[in-house]
Fold:
Amino acid sequence: MPGQSTTLHATVGPGFTISLTTDAGARVTHLDPGAYVIEVDDLGEEHNFHLQGPGVDRATEVVETSKQTWNVTLTDGTYFYACDPHAGLMHGSFTVGTVPASSPPAPAASKKLFLAAGPGYSITLKTAAGKAAKSVKLGTYTVVVRDRSTIHDAHLIAPGFDRRTTVPFVGTKTWKVKLAKTGTLRFQCDPHASQGMRGSAKIVR
Structure:
């Protein structure tokens, strides 16, 4: 594609929108192989921008907004981008060079949960759709933990799993949690559980 831009612009949020465009503002559908600079503008705390394809697997964090610059080398094939928590709604793809006949399918959305302690005296466990987790199915989950206060911790307990942040810690952590047995998934702030900072979800088949 003669004269095509080597700088691309990735945007996600603040609503349920995601895009990858050229300098001219055109949606990216096909590119020549080569080196590119991707300016990423992540505008939603509940979203991220995740790019996957031959030789590339880059993503912003779900629980924070950010501006990033990625230097990537794109080769022949199909590339997919999505917001991981909302991949069913927020996704796109483009091809590069000559696409192999057996192009891989789009990557499956991973199972994710979001545990947040704070702001204030609140603690929540939400699904990838942003709803309160009342029940979760057996399986392996990526749990994105956001501890927003030095007076709280975020404590997650399930059969075979027991992990927490420290009380002084403020920031984000990512845990892999394997729910292999039915039962109860509990979450709480240990210092303030008696003040209502606790909850639970059923683990079901």
Observations:
- The mean pLDDT is 90.
